[in-house]
Design brief:
Layout lengths: L23 H18 L3 E8 L2 E9 L14 E2 L5 H13 L24 H5 L24 H9 L15 H15 L3 H13 L6 H4 L8 E3 L5 E3 L9 H4 L2 E2 L1 H13 L5 H7 L11 E2 L4 E5 L2 E10 L2 E8 L4 E7 L6 H13 L7 H12 L9 H6 L2 H11 L7 E11 L2 E9 L4 E8 L6 E9 L2
Antiparallel strand pairs: 1-2, 1-11, 3-6, 4-5, 7-8, 8-9, 9-10, 10-11, 12-13, 13-14, 14-15
Length: 456
């Protein structure tokens, strides 16, 4: 997971099992962090919503949302792209509740002409384990997407091709699988997916939701793209029919927060349906846990149910922490950075103390930039290494780099020779540094803290 470095943020701590309402200091720290990330990435705008103690606590918008210099507003909608998938899964779960279909139904029951229809299940469609090849793996619009299409045309091209693997044996993200699921849903429900979602999910929760391809207005956020390090340009929009059940929803972060609160409170769906969505369905050898339209992981000691979304000119991150009764939603109007994750992780570091896995590394780095260290933090060998010459070299070489734009931890903590081993990447405007940290497990005293030039 990437960890954004937000210099000077005051980390006021939340309780271990409850994210307390944010203080004004925390809100100011969040604002400073978001603005810093937007400036570094050159993404035009961001909009956020934070739930604490099961309630919407803070919503704020930043930057130039419409590329016209007007003040940002939390009322501006952004496409949420693949975050929409959990709503498609929820709609199907409602039909399962009513006994109209089963997650273990085979595709052949509804769409018998598709490849693997006799073996692929609804559950596998929703968990990206079906084997259907993703029709949109690119991070840009390919030529066919500049013209409207239909879900049936997508299935005819991609869901009748050979499977990439035997169903259930691998995890591979597939918009095609969700297009199949959407078609099946409409066949069973005898109703358009988005109409059903409005009636059964959005209106009961008081959510104002539109379709991304056709429902955005001039007052909503305008997406942008960037070619390499070139200028920021307005992005093209996905044409009608392409994203359907895989991602055709747009809303504000505050509207999505209402859904997050429903998840925390187990409303709209039955508890058993929420649990089904949040149960891992990925194979044991997959490098992640994934339910039905949501990713399952943790940050620090905090269980997390999350999903990202990406359109050509927009990126989004939605993270829910059930045990803490909290959620963080971040939308940005740029399709060319990871700023949505950097912002979400900076907010996590403010709300949850143990979410910032880079805090100690950043603290030692800051000392080395000055050429002075707190020697009580180091072992005898660590202090031996940091001679006056070594400290001088660190000071003179690091001070000219400026502040890191990002600090991220690579891999899990390991053991070697009785010491813990951790790796970090410090990113600057024109280079990256690899940081290797070895420490005593019991005391935490640092045996090694070294920095080297790094190339991905």
């Amino acid at each position: 997971m990437r960890r954004a470095l937000i210099v000077g943020l005051t980390l006021l701590l939340a309780g271990p099992l409850l994210a307390k309402p944010l203080s004004m200091e925390q809100k100011h720290a969040i604002d400073a962090g978001v603005n810093k990330i937007l400036k570094a990435s050159q993404v035009p705008s961001a909009s956020i919503a934070i739930v604490t103690d099961g309630k919407l606590d803070y919503a704020q918008a930043y930057g130039d949302q419409r590329l016209d210099g007007t003040a940002p507003t939390i009322a501006a909608r952004y496409p949420i792209a693949s975050i929409s998938k959990q709503f498609t899964a929820a709609a199907i779960l409602l039909l399962v509740e009513e006994g109209k279909m089963s997650l273990d139904d085979k595709v052949a029951k509804y769409l018998p002409t598709l490849t693997g229809a006799n073996t692929v299940t609804i559950r596998e469609l929703l968990s990206h384990t079906s084997g259907y090849r993703d029709f949109w793996p690119q991070d840009f619009l390919f030529e066919a997407m500049t013209k409207p299409t239909t879900s049936q045309a997508i299935l005819d091209h991609w869901a009748k091709a050979p499977l990439d693997y035997a169903p259930g044996t691998k995890w591979q993200y597939s918009n095609t699988g969700y297009t199949v699921a959407g078609q099946i849903f409409e066949q069973v429900a005898k109703e358009k997916l988005q109409s059903f979602e409005q009636r059964r999910l959005f209106k009961p929760l008081g959510m104002d939701v539109v379709l991304a391809a056709t429902g955005l207005s001039r007052t909503d956020a305008r997406g942008t793209i960037r070619n390499a390090l070139g200028p920021i340009r307005p992005s093209p929009l996905e044409t009608d029919g392409w994203v359907f059940a895989a991602g055709d929803l747009a809303m504000t972060p505050s509207e999505l927060a209402k859904w997050n609160i429903a998840r925390l409170n187990r409303t709209v769906l039955k508890p058993v349906s929420w649990q089904a969505q949040e149960t891992n369905a990925a194979p044991a050898d997959a490098d992640l846990k994934y339910g039905l339209g949501v990713k399952l992981d943790a940050v620090g000691q905090h269980q997390r149910i999350q999903h990202n979304g990406g359109f050509t000119g927009y990126l989004s991150s939605n993270r829910v922490y059930p045990a803490d009764h909290a959620a963080i939603t971040v939308f940005i109007s740029g399709g060319f950075s990871n700023s949505q994750d950097a912002i979400a992780e900076a907010i996590e570091a403010i709300v949850f103390d143990d979410a910032d896995e880079t805090k100690e590394a950043r603290s030692v780095f800051a000392m080395l930039r000055t050429g002075q260290i707190d020697r009580s933090k180091f072992t005898d060998n660590g202090n031996f290494y940091f001679t006056p010459t070594a400290l001088s070299d660190y000071r003179t070489s690091l001070a000219t780099l400026g502040e890191p734009t990002r600090v991220e931890r690579r891999g899990a903590k390991q053991l070697r020779g009785g010491l813990t081993v951790e790796l970090y990447i410090f990113t600057f405007a024109d280079r990256k540094l690899l940081c290797i940290v070895r420490a005593e497990p019991a005391s935490g005293r640092i045996e090694q803290f070294t920095l080297y030039p790094f190339t991905d």
